[in-house]
């Protein structure tokens, strides 16, 4: 069924009795051409682009729980391309361009809202860094505007501009960045992939990866063995655990990143606002809730929850930036498992096992990368060579030191995420 205004009207007159399930719930087949481990945003987008762009044959996505139950539904929904480092910058620019037409392509409202992302700066040095970032963005064809304090006050008058410790001097605005509905992104890709013949298999945990003479031959699951010529690992914070099934040790640490949402309020925050000195970021959802987050919890964990000291730190940063939110009541919080690499950049590459591919290490950038990640990973799995937008995301950079990427230029140190 194709969604349209006419279809909504038609179903409304019919009592909404004609809607059908948005994707099948098939039993796993004994063999596929390609198996994707992980039914989150990156895994579903990979399957979709494999089927759409490469006609890659029989494809299955294996998810141990339900589709979209991991990080794709546990984030603050921000979409931007405010990156300066070569490799990262080109990739996120490409991903943002895919976001712009994603709803039309998938025939599903992913609720992409290009409301603008404002990154605040609080010192002369930070302003200079943002000038360089803005110029890098413009050189790639992205929009970027440097706002002085007077212009910023016109757009966001509710910030605490007179804070003695973190005075606000201005901000870098990316006008066509914004937010999207995280659940809708997973559902849209799942529906579109299913329509192209991809089997989306839920409640199918992978327990082993079969390797014969250095080549992958399939996977073991709680629902039986599945043979495959190619296998892609796309499991975010669980990457180290799944890769270990193939005898691999990844340069990844898994940490918790918390997010929070308040009760619904009248519209007040029109943009996404990032606090440059407190690593605090906030936006307002379509339902009126303030959605915000901050730093990692900074301890390795596979739990999808956080700790109270970090929650307190995030609330303090929010109150420092905009005291007006102090009376808003927090409804709920959640945690995502972040797969952090030493240089803060992702990995999309072949592995040492023939036919086994890895997509991991997204650090803070996983949600905004969903379209670009799937597009590039599908190209790699189908053609055996990286798409230009992912060419620098090599796994061996951590072994050789060649091509290490780090937004701050501080090198490969695990304690500097």
Q: Could you explain how this protein is built, in words?
A:
This protein has 417 residues and is of the alpha/beta class. The chain has 2 domains: 240 residues, FAD/NAD(P)-binding domain, CATH 3.50.50; 152 residues, D-Amino Acid Oxidase, Chain A, domain 2, CATH 3.30.9.10. It contains 11 helices and 18 strands. Strands 1, 2, 8, 9, 10, 11, 17 and 18 form an 8-stranded mixed sheet that branches. The chain has an 8-stranded mixed sheet with strand order 5-6-4-13-14-15-12-16. A hairpin with a 2-residue loop joins strand 10 and strand 11. Helix 2 packs parallel to helix 7 and helix 2 crosses helix 10. The chain is globular. The C terminus is likely disordered.
CATH homology superfamily name of the largest domain: FAD/NAD(P)-binding domain
Cα Rg: 22 Å
Secondary structural class = alpha/beta
List low-pLDDT spans. Answer: 409-417
Sum up the structure in keywords.
28% helix, single chain, FAD/NAD(P)-binding domain, 2 domains, 11 helices, 417 residues, eight-stranded mixed β-sheet, disordered C terminus, alpha/beta
């Amino acid at each position: 069924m194709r969604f349209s205004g006419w279809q909504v009207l038609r179903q409304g007159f019919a009592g909404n009795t004609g809607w059908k399930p948005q994707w099948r719930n098939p039993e796993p087949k004994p063999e596929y051409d390609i198996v994707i481990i992980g039914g989150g945003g990156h895994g579903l987008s990979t399957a979709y682009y494999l089927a759409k762009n490469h006609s890659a044959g029989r494809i299955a996505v294996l998810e141990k729980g339900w589709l979209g139950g991991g990080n794709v539904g546990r984030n603050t929904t921000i979409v931007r391309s405010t990156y300066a480092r070569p490799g990262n910058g080109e990739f996120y620019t490409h991903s943002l361009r895919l976001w712009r037409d994603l709803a039309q392509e998938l025939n599903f409202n992913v609720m992409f809202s290009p409301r603008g992302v404002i990154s605040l700066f609080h010192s002369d040095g930070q302003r200079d860094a943002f000038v360089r970032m803005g110029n890098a963005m413009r050189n790639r064809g992205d929009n970027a505007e440097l706002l002085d304090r007077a212009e910023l006050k016109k757009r966001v008058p509710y910030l605490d501009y007179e804070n003695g410790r973190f005075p606000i001097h201005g901000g870098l605005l990316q006008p066509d960045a914004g937010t999207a509905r995280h659940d809708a992104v997973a559902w849209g890709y799942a529906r579109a992939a299913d329509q192209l013949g991809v089997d989306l298999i839920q409640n199918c945990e992978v327990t082993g990866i079969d390797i014969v003479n250095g080549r992958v031959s399939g996977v073991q699951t709680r629902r039986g063995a599945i043979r495959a010529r190619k296998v892609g690992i796309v499991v975010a914070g669980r990457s180290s655990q799944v890769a270990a099934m193939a005898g691999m040790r990844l340069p990844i640490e898994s940490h918790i990143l918390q997010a929070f949402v308040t009760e619904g309020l009248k519209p007040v925050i029109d943009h996404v606002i990032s606090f440059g000195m407190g690593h605090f970021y906030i936006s307002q959802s379509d339902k009126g809730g303030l959605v915000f987050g901050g730093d990692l919890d900074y301890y390795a964990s596979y739990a999808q929850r956080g700790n109270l000291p970090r929650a307190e730190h995030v609330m303090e940063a929010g109150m420092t930036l905009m005291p007006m939110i102090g009376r808003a009541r927090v409804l709920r919080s959640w945690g995502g498992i972040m797969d952090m690499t030493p240089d803060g950049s992702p990995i999309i590459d072949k592995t040492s096992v023939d036919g086994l591919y890895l997509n991991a290490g997204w650090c803070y950038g996983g949600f905004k990368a969903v379209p670009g990640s799937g597009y590039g990973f599908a190209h790699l799995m189908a053609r055996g060579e990286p798409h230009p937008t992912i060419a620098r995301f090599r796994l061996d950079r951590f072994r050789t030191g060649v091509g290490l990427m780090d937004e701050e230029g501080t090198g490969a140190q695990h304690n500097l995420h």
